[in-house]
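Appendix B, Record 12. Input sequence as logged:
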Amino acid sequence: MFAALYTFTVKAGSEDKFRDAWRRLTEAIFAKHGSRGSRLHRGKGGIWFAYAQWPSREVWEQTRAQPSANAEASAEMRECLAGPIETLLGEVCDDLLH
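Logged structural output:
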């Protein structure tokens, strides 16, 4: 299994719009591209992060090469951000989530 960790800096006052857009985009990616789902977390100082699981790096890369699963939600998410999306990638080596 493959995982991606995304970090976002969300503009103050845009939190609800960001969450709604993130949810719609994530649901579309799950339905159309075979992700295993994602969890969104709120940190301090406008930092948010999401952990997403994929069957493999290849599936993740194929998805990234295609148009957005929900272009409207993608655009709305970007409008809410104060900076670029940072991404960490890796293979799952120990899994203790239940």
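Residues 2-91 form a domain with the Alpha-Beta Plaits fold (CATH 3.30.70.100).
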